[in-house]
């Protein structure tokens, strides 16, 4: 599936570096959990030590301002792509239950997005993210 699908993350450009990295990690975890076809098999070194599997395809990370992030979110929803979200409120929560409650409390169009994770067929993902720049 590597050539036919794509994993992408879009993070808001005004976040601190540690926040961008943290948001990216959280967003791709949702893709791995719900889309097992994206994950390869365990790694093993020459000594026989085994390691956890990783994605079997690249993860592209983009930067966007708040408006472009909202637009990409809407386009991804319209194209029915796999989507994970990270909202500003999640920086203040300390566990998954509170994270889900914070997202559930806000209607889609009012989410204060700081990042999205997108997975799906390559062309629809590219169209949803058209015009965004890759993270340097």
TrEMBL record:
Highest taxon of the lineage: Bacteria
Pfam families with a match to the protein in the record: DUF2000
Record protein name field: DUF2000 domain-containing protein
Organism listed in the record: Amycolatopsis taiwanensis
